[in-house]
Amino acid sequence: MADQSGKVAWITGASSGIGEGLAKAFVADGGAVILSGRKVAELERVASESGAAERCHILPFETTDFAALPELAKQAIAWKGQVDILVNNAGISQRSLAVNTDFSVYQKIIDVDLLAPIALTQALLSHLVGLDKAAVINISSVAGKIGAPLRTAYSAAKHGIIGYGDSLRTEVAGQGVQVLNVAPGSVKTDVSRNALNADGSRRGQSDDAIENGISPKKCAEIIWQALNDGKREVVVAEGPEATMPQMRAAEPDKFFDLMEQMIAGGYAKELID
Length: 273
What we know:
Blueprint: E1 8-11, H1 17-28, E2 32-35, H2 40-49, E3 56-58, H3 69-80, E4 85-88, H4 103-128, E5 134-139, H5 152-172, E6 177-184, H6 208-211, H7 216-228, E7 233-236, H8 240-250, H9 252-264, H10 267-272
Parallel strand pairs: 1-2, 1-4, 2-3, 4-5, 5-6, 6-7
């Protein structure tokens, strides 16, 4: 990873998982981070464990408090006079069949995973385009590249943030703003435990794939390297997950058959029961 001295990254969902990994890696390479999330104690822990708490600024907020975001953007900029990189990482997943899922689950996931990062980016965008070099990193998912079973709301939101990022990139690339869309597969985080059931309740348990997934530290290293390499998109996955987006693009019917076979083979029962 490149020397990040003098640069400021604002990371949402920074209290755990991928966000925590990104924050610690950025600080380790000399950068300063604005740590955002809802759990202040955990944000303070991340700052303390970073090894340079003086280069960490805690700015807690609820991502779906859209009206508050313009003022929060001003506060973030005021800390060091600039924000060079915005990382839209905060999110929530789902484990439920569409036929059983309450519409409120769709509203919540799309608010958190799609509208919230768009709203925050929009609040900061005029600042970013005023810098010589800036970046927006959107943490989507492999589910944002494919139609993943039991994740109709999550896939919809994560597809959406990729679409927003791709479109935004066309407009701001000439103004020095890099837009990197990230599609992680299984990363060992609490994403499955925090996922929503059909009724909107917290799932409370993990998946084997997640428990055996890539470490947040390794995921963060890949993401920062992709940004440094000027990439527009990166899939952070191993095994079959790494090839699914390519199969979806190159052989869609074959891929659709595969996903349908997963459900026919008991995938839903395995995760829900």
